[in-house]
Each structure stands twice: as C-alpha cells, then as structure tokens.
Write a structure and sequence with these properties.
Layout lengths: L2 E5 L3 H13 L3 E5 L2 H10 L4 E5 L7 H11 L5 E6 L3 H9 L4 E5 L3 H30 L11 H13 L6 E4 L6 H10 L8 E5 L5 H9 L16 H4 L4 E5 L6 H13 L1 E3 L6 E3 L3 E6 L3 H6 L5 H7 L2 E4 L10 H15 L6 E2 L1 H9 L5 H15 L4 E2 L33 H19 L4 H8 L3 H10 L7
Parallel strand pairs: 1-2, 1-3, 3-4, 4-5, 6-11, 6-12, 7-8, 8-11, 13-14
Antiparallel strand pairs: 9-10
C-alpha cells in the first residue's frame, strides 16, 4: 500500500480524489496549500506526491522544487489544465515524475500512481542495499563443497520458487542471513525488497515499532509517522534474525501477520494488508523454547514450514581451504595487495583452530592477518582468531561495581543514559561517523541510531 499526499486548493476536488484513492487501497493525506503540504512531507513517510499546478501563494512548480530540496527521490506528479502542457514539461525538467492533463480518467491516474510507487520502492531498496554494502563486510557468495553444504544448496534451490516460510538454524556466524538472501534472490520476489531485522537488538516496544511502524505521537519520541519493516517489505521478503528473542506479547502479532497478512501500526487502529514472505533464523532450539513456554507453539509451526540447518565450520573443515582463499581474494582487492597469499603453515594452523565464531570469525581472522602481515604473505604468526582474545575481554555476565564511575545519588536513568551515550559516541568515533557502520557495530538500526544521536545531541567532532 502506497502513502500518497494530494495537494490542491479546491476542497471538493480534494474530497473526491481522496475517496477515489482510498477505495483503490492507497493511504491518502491531503493539503489545501503548498505550505500545508510541505509540513506533511516533513512529518510522514510518503511514497508519492500529487499536486495541482495552479494554486494561490505557493504554486505547483514552487512546491515541486521545495519537495525535491527535501527528498530528491520522492516522486511528484503534477496536474495541469490541458492548455498548460508547457508548464508540465517545465515541471518534468525540474524533476517531476510525470504529469496528468485535465480531464484525465481514473484508470490513467491509478496506473501513473502505481508506476510512481513501484519506481520509488526500487530506489529505496537500492539505497538500502548500498548502505548495507558500505556498513557490512559479509561475503557475497556461498562457498563450500562439503556434503552438508550441498544439502543446503539443494534445499535453497527447491524452496526458493515457493512462498513457504523458512526457518534457518545454526550457530552464530554460520551465514544464516546469506542463506536468506540466496533464497530471496532466487525467488519470484527477487526484484522486490529484502528487509532484514535483528530481533535481539531492540527492546519490546522499539521492536514492535520497528516491525509494524508507528503513527505520529504514538509514544515519546514518535515525532513523525514511520512505516515498519513489514510495510517496507510488501511484495518482497522480510528476514527475522534471532526470531527466538521476540517477546511473547509480540509473537501473537507476528502470528497474525503470518495467518491473515494484516497488522496495525503502533498507535493506529487502521488495518494494513501486506504480501510478505517470512524467512527467520535463530541459534536457539525453538522446540526447547516452546517447551519452556517462551515461544508460541503455533508460531513455531508457522515459521518452521521449511527448516534449513547450517553446519558449524568445525563440521565442514574440508571447506577451510576454499573459504580461506575466498577471503584472501576479497582482502587482496579491498586492501590493494595484489600479491597477497596465505602460507602453508598458516593454512595448517587454520585447520587446527576450534572456530567457535564460525565463518564470521574466520573472515575477521583473515582480514586482521591481511592487514598486519609484514609482507604479502600471511604467516602462521599472523593468524590470531577472535577466540585467542576471549579471556582478555570482560564477560557481559561479570559483576561490575558501577559506583566507582557514578555519583552515589545517581538514578538508574542517569546511569543508563550515560552508558548509552558513551557507547553511541565511541561507536561513531570508531567508524569515522559512518552511521550505517556504527549502527551495525552497536547491533541497532540506522534510523534508531539517528534518533538517539538527536536525543543526546551527538554531532560529528571536527
């Protein structure tokens, strides 16, 4: 469902057009002037803007320029009188998506709106993927010839053309999101959005807003209307990573989406319909979670239509050479080291290590070795996997006396806010204030990072 803003100074025309578009399933916002329209552009997550050309005060051309100054990619359709086609042409040159000359048919309008909405969806998805590529170093292809991996490839091939829900299980770092992307890219939905959500990274309230969106004023900090990940994934695929971490109250709402393909934004009673394929992943045993009463049995069976289990790296050590060479080739290009290679002794060491962090740990190890090695050859002494540092890092379960860091009369909120602000600032500094990378480092979404930066008034240091 696309969100449309219609701007026109004729009240009756606004009413007629609004009702027509609502009957067609669009979410419609209206404004009687360009000024009012800009306020809605600033507050609402829109997909399309429709504006009349002739309006008192700010005319359609000025309004178009203001919208493009705020959101360059947001499609704007201008409506002109038949005798003013020359103005429409100038609007197209100024960035309008299309124009309609009065009188036009309802079918012509609907077709143009759907084209504009689809065009904008593709732009948003491409932008999201570019941000993801910048912020993540995940490998782009699946590597391995181990029999267990061959079985995974065969399952992907069989399940991809269907609309069935898939549950991917396996230890952290085994490549569950990579499998989800492979299923999406080989499905009929490949040209539609692929939206990933880390369900373990957010509190219950924030996760509900992230998944289902919220209306302006729904809670403190909800200063504008925002679409949720399900709405953004409409006609595409949503990947729910760490699905076992979803709190029980939210599980019932997720079950409803699976059963009825409907939901409501937080703070709204309006039902939204979506067509979304759900792929989920977890490193937990969900059957045990069901037995313990922490996960709904009916939701488990809805998600687990097609189970795919990824082997740990230690179970496919015959793939080690292929994987190591894959990552050496990757960092050979990224680090501009055309002669980078790995020595036989280093490879032997890789084969002997436990790899508790699986593929992700292997990639981190080779990236670090490629950066730190003295010449163009990664030697055994350069191979220092993450597990070698495990004992040096403080445990998250270790009790820490915070009284040494804060005043005795400091309240809980003061302490939590101070810690949160410190972690946000440090992550931004570590990533040179690249927000996508900082958000990934913190395990939160980019939009949540931006909200917290505003909350704590964090700005890039000069």
């Amino acid at each position: 469902m696309y969100s449309i803003l219609v701007v026109d100074d004729e009240p009756n025309y606004l009413i007629v057009l609004s009702e027509l578009l609502k009957d067609e399933g669009f979410e419609v916002f209206t404004a009687a002037s360009g000024i009012d329209g800009l306020a809605i552009v600033d507050e609402v997550d829109l997909d399309i803007v429709v504006t009349d050309m002739q309006m008192p005060g700010m005319d359609g051309m000025q309004f178009l320029q203001e919208v493009k100054g705020r959101q360059a990619d947001l499609p704007v359709i201008v409506i002109t009188a038949f005798a003013e086609v020359d103005k429409a042409v100038r609007a197209m040159q100024a960035g309008a998506f299309s124009y309609l000359a009065k009188p036009f048919s309802n079918d012509e309008l609907i077709i143009t709106l759907k084209k504009a909405g689809h065009h904008y969806s593709l732009i948003r998805e491409n932008t999201r993927l570019r941000d993801e590529i910048k912020g993540k170093s995940g490998f782009s292809g699946m590597v391995g010839k181990n029999p267990k991996m061959i079985q995974v490839y065969q399952l992907i091939e069989k399940v991809s053309p269907t609309h069935a829900s898939v549950l991917i299980t396996g230890e952290s770092g085994t490549g569950k999101e990579l499998v989800a992307k492979a299923i999406h890219m080989n499905s009929p939905r490949e040209t539609q959005p692929f939206i990933a959500v880390n369900c373990a990274a957010l509190s219950e309230n924030l996760l509900e807003s992230e998944l289902f969106g919220h209306e302006k004023g729904a809670f403190t900090g909800a200063v504008v209307m925002r679409k949720g990940r399900f709405e953004l994934a409409d006609t595409g695929t949503i990947f729910l990573d760490e699905v076992g971490e979803i709190p029980l109250p939210l599980q019932s709402k997720l079950l409803r989406v699976l059963q009825e393909k409907t939901f409501e934004r937080v703070g709204s009673g309006k039902t939204i319909e979506v067509d979304v394929r759900i792929i989920s992943a977890t490193n937990k045993d969900l059957r045990e979670e069901v037995a313990a009463g922490r996960f709904r049995e009916d939701l488990f069976y809805r998600l687990n239509v097609i189970p795919i289990t990824l082997p740990a790296l230690r179970e496919r050590m015959d793939d080690m050479r292929l994987l190591a060479e894959f990552f050496v080739e990757k960092y050979r290009k990224e680090l501009a080291k055309p002669k980078l290679q790995i020595s036989p002794d280093a490879m032997k060491l890789l084969m002997r290590l436990p790899w508790e962090g699986n593929i992700r740990e292997l990639e981190n190890t080779i990236e670090r070795a490629a950066i730190l090695c003295a010449g163009d050859t990664i030697e055994a002494e350069d191979v220092q996997p993450d597990t070698l540092y495990a004992e040096e890092k403080p445990s998250m379960n270790q009790e820490i006396d915070l009284r040494q860091f804060f005043a005795e009369d400091a309240g809980l909120n003061d302490v939590l806010h101070a810690i949160e602000k410190s972690m946000l600032t440090q992550a931004l500094m570590d990533t040179d204030y690249v927000q996508a990378r900082a958000a990934d480092k913190l395990g939160i979404t980019k939009s949540l990072l931006q909200y917290k930066m505003k909350k704590y008034r964090i700005k890039k240091r000069k």
